[in-house]
Write a structure and sequence with these properties.
Largest sheet: 7 strands, antiparallel
CATH architecture: 2-Layer Sandwich
Strand order of the largest sheet: 1-7-6-5-4-3-2
Strand content: 35-45%
CATH superfamily: START domain
Structural class: alpha+beta
Shape: globular
CATH class: Alpha Beta
Distance between the termini: 55 Å
Radius of gyration: 16 Å
Order of helices and strands: EHHEEEEEEH
Number of domains: 1
Length: 159
């Protein structure tokens, strides 16, 4: 019996941001500004505007990576619990869901957990999973670490 390598990943990232939950929420819920502070976000376009909280919005996001490829997908916001939880469904070169969870650490810091449950959409990625899975995880962790550092810098300096 042959085993097929999984083409899905469950990835978890933890950020500690020295800023209020409101400040972190505002940054995360305005993805059009992500390229200003998240080094690997190359482009964000609004495809569909959601309600006042962003529910139902759809954004196209193009990412650079630490590897020699870019990846792009749409994210539709499907759940919003202000300053607590933001969940989106991804479709395109990656398919799955991402969930941001925010928890206040006192008044001046926020613990952010990001859960990324994703299936690989590109054929070369699916074929390369047996060898490249650790590299894909490393790449994801590097992109998220850069996002954390960028958000800390952005909220501290406004740039």
């Amino acid at each position: 019996m042959s085993q097929v390598a999984p083409t899905s990943f469950d990835l978890t990232s933890h950020w500690r941001i020295p800023a209020s939950t409101e400040q972190v929420w505002q940054a995360l819920t305005h993805p059009l500004a992500w390229p200003d502070w998240w080094p690997y976000v190359r482009e964000v376009r609004l495809q569909h505007e959601g309600d006042k909280d962003g529910l139902g919005s759809i954004h196209f996001i193009r990412w650079a990576t630490r590897l020699p490829y870019e990846i792009a997908f749409e994210v539709e916001t499907v759940e919003v619990k202000p300053r607590k939880k933001l969940r989106g469904l991804a479709r395109g070169e990656l398919e799955g869901q991402g969930t941001w969870l925010l928890e206040a650490e006192g008044k001046a810091a926020t613990h952010v957990t990001y859960l990324w449950q994703v299936n690989l959409g590109k054929a070369w990625m699916r074929l390369g999973v047996p060898l490249l899975a650790p590299v894909f995880r490393w790449n994801h962790n590097a992109l998220m670490a850069a996002g954390e550092a960028g958000l800390i810098r952005h909220l501290a300096t406004g740039t």
